[in-house]
Design a protein that fits this description.
This is Mannitol-1-phosphate 5-dehydrogenase. This protein has 2 domains: 17-307, 3-Layer(aba) Sandwich (Rossmann fold); 311-506, N-(1-d-carboxylethyl)-l-norvaline Dehydrogenase, domain 2 (Orthogonal Bundle), CATH 1.10.1040. It is built from 20 helices and 15 strands. It has helices at 26-34, 46-50, 52-57, 90-96, 129-137, 166-177, 186-200, 216-231, 235-242, 259-269, 310-333, 339-342, 346-362, 367-382, 390-394, 397-420, 433-448, 467-474, 482-497, 503-506, and strands at 17-18, 36-42, 65-66, 79-84, 102-108, 111-117, 120-124, 143-146, 205-209, 243-251, 271-272, 277-279, 284-288, 295-296, 304-305. The strands form 4 sheets. Strands 7-4-2-8-9-10-13-15 form an 8-stranded mixed β-sheet. Strands 6-5-12 form a 3-stranded mixed β-sheet. The chain has a two-stranded parallel ribbon with strand order 1-11. The longest helix is centred in the middle third of the chain and has 24 residues, at 310-333. The protein starts with 16 loop residues before the first strand and ends in a 14-residue tail after the last helix. Bound molecules: nicotinamide-adenine-dinucleotide and D-Mannitol-1-phosphate. The site of nicotinamide-adenine-dinucleotide has 23 residues, from helix 2.
Length: 520
């Protein structure tokens, strides 16, 4: 659609038009009408709409999908998504009022473009249990995608689902009784929907996790199977036989939409869209696993299918996501609001580079590939048109930190132990200043005003937590390591010596070792 510069918030020439099927071009309308309801999605947030829906939208014309359900050939028909909200009905109501068509505003450092996305063909409240069960049981459904946040899987330390969690326990009880009410957790909804599919005899399906988690396909399978085993004797065996759990690394920075984004989209398109989604130009999707009932030809839109996902997911989680978390906690402490502000502050950039050095040493990738990823991240984080709020990234740290920083730290510590035993590896204690700074900044974050912290473990936070208490929450196996406790205490002291935001050093235009080359 329009490639004009966004910014004024006014539509040239007057009145705006509503978004919806009527706003699609004739060509786009024909594609939309031909879409087959083959994908079900849970978690209708901003990211699903900037990423999986966008990839589905950009599948090359005529390539449709592979495979079929119910014996009928799927041919080259484009695929459509039946999407369900995770917790509240708002987004479903909003999108339904505009035929689930919405504007994607893509913000590059030097300007913005807008396009209409029509790959979602229905939007529903996830609490509408009959509709959810019918969608999963539909023989046409071949793929189920998920973006429900890291905390929504309710994983216990033993790797099974956390049955002590009251929401999980309530869902287990509903499922045992075969009650008509909706489950409230994501694993509960999946078990409920997959049971409906088994009961209807609709055959195999692929579940694709698109949340920022390590080995997210296996983790989703483990949560679903451990809950299924609790509630229905034969269901686990059916799931193991018929359902594949695909792992995926997903990447596209997608901040929460603001009024300014909606005004800019309106100026570009002339369409008044309350459901605008904003994202950066970069998009990456790497998947690993089987699609027993077929899938869209996402590779024609740039997705990659690989045998071993681990290096891709480690690169993403340990560089981008760990970097985001560091900037969030340290940046907020220093008075910054957004990622681009924080990477303009050398006091944030120095520990960020240290964190990346430490992660890079653990990544099983060629040095030039890591260097290219870091350079690209410098540009992406510095994009002044993506106003990604640190407060949004800061949520749920107790679930995110074990994946983003503790996993690589654990590997580094093991290598340091190896070096001491004469096996080669990291010299010294193995505790890098980058990781210690991230843990210390989170410590300050959750003890500053615990009542304001959004986190599933917020009940465990209090102002008097010590370094060892903090480690027990995110790395219980390392909480006994005195060297780590000391390193985190020292990092906290270093952070406290930094003065709060200093305009001379904290503006996005201040010189920074990241040197993104991005205009302020
Ligand atoms: N936004 C990004 O830049 C981005 C990029 C890559 C991956 N992701 C992944 O996508 C997830 C969602 O991001 P978003 O930007 O769409 O956020 P969002 O706030 O726009 O939407 C979150 C969605 O998750 C659902 N949800 C939240 N908690 C839930 C729970 N306990 N049970 C069931 N559903 C729940 C919400 O209802 C909503 O549909 C992230 O947590 C992350 O794992 C996001
Ligand atoms: O979405 P979350 O809460 O998992 O994490 C916040 C950000 O780090 C994340 O959304 C990144 O922007 C994203 O992973 C980029 O692909």
């Amino acid at each position: 659609m329009s490639e004009a510069e966004a910014g004024s918030g006014r539509v040239a020439g007057g009145a705006s038009r509503p978004v919806g099927l009527g706003a699609l071009s004739a060509e786009q309308r024909a594609v939309r009408d031909a879409r087959e309801r083959r994908i079900v999605h849970l978690g209708l947030g901003a990211f699903h709409r900037s990423h999986q829906a966008w990839f589905t939208q950009h599948v090359a014309e005529g390539s449709g999908g592979s495979g079929s359900s119910s014996g009928s050939a799927s041919g080259s028909a484009p695929w459509g998504i039946v999407a369900f909200t995770g917790r509240r009905p708002d987004q479903a109501d909003l999108l339904s009022r505009q035929d689930a068509v919405y504007t994607l505003l893509t913000r590059a450092a030097d300007g913005a473009t807008a396009e209409l996305v029509d790959a979602i063909v229905e939007a529903h409240d996830g609490a509408d249990a009959p509709r959810w069960r019918a969608a999963l049981a539909d023989p046409q459904t071949a793929v189920v995608t998920l973006t429900v946040t890291e905390a929504a899987y309710h994983r216990a330390p033993d790797g099974r689902i956390d049955l002590d969690d009251p929401d999980v326990a309530a869902d287990a009880e509903l499922l045992r009784r075969g009650a008509p009410e909706a489950c409230t957790t994501a694993p509960g909804r999946l078990v409920d929907g997959l049971r409906a599919r088994r009961d209807r005899g609709s055959g195999p399906v692929a579940v694709v996790c698109c949340d920022n988690l390590t080995d997210n396909g296996r983790m989703t399978r483990d949560m679903v199977l451990s809950l299924a085993d609790e509630v229905d004797a034969g269901l686990g065996a059916w799931i193991l036989r018929e359902v594949s759990f695909v792992a995926s690394m997903v990447d596209r920075i997608t901040p929460a939409t603001t009024d300014g984004d909606r005004a800019d989209a309106l100026a570009l398109t002339g369409l008044d869209d309350p459901a605008v989604v904003v994202a950066e130009p970069f998009a990456e999707w790497v998947l690993s696993g089987r699609f027993p009932a077929g899938r869209p030809a996402w590779e024609t839109a740039g997705a990659r299918f690989v045998d071993d996902l681990e290096p891709y997911e480690q690169r993403k989680l340990w560089l981008l996501n760990a970097g985001h978390s560091l900037l969030a906690y340290l940046g907020l402490h220093l008075g910054h609001q957004t990622v681009d502000e924080a990477v303009g502050d050398p006091r944030c950039v120095e520990p960020l580079e240290q964190l990346w050095d430490e992660a890079a040493a653990e990544l099983p990738l060629p040095a030039d590939e890591i260097a290219a990823a870091r350079a690209a991240l410098g540009e992406r984080f510095g994009n002044p048109r993506i106003r990604h709020r640190l407060q949004q990234i800061a949520s749920d740290g107790s679930v995110k930190l074990p994946i983003r920083v503790v996993d690589p730290l654990r590997r580094r510590l093991a290598r340091a132990d190896g070096a001491r035993a004469g096996a080669g590896g990291v010299a010294g204690s193995g505790i890098g200043p980058g990781a210690a700074t991230l843990l210390a900044a989170w410590w300050l974050h959750v003890t500053g005003d615990p009542s304001l912290v959004a986190d599933p473990r917020s009940g465990d936070f209090s102002a008097d937590l010590g370094a060892r208490d903090i480690l027990r929450l995110v790395a219980p196996d390392l909480a006994g390591d005195d060297r780590l406790v000391t390193a985190v205490e020292e990092a906290r002291a270093r952070i406290l010596r930094l003065s709060p935001a200093d305009p001379a050093t904290s503006s996005p235009s201040a010189s920074s070792p990241l040197d993104t080359g991005v205009p302020a």
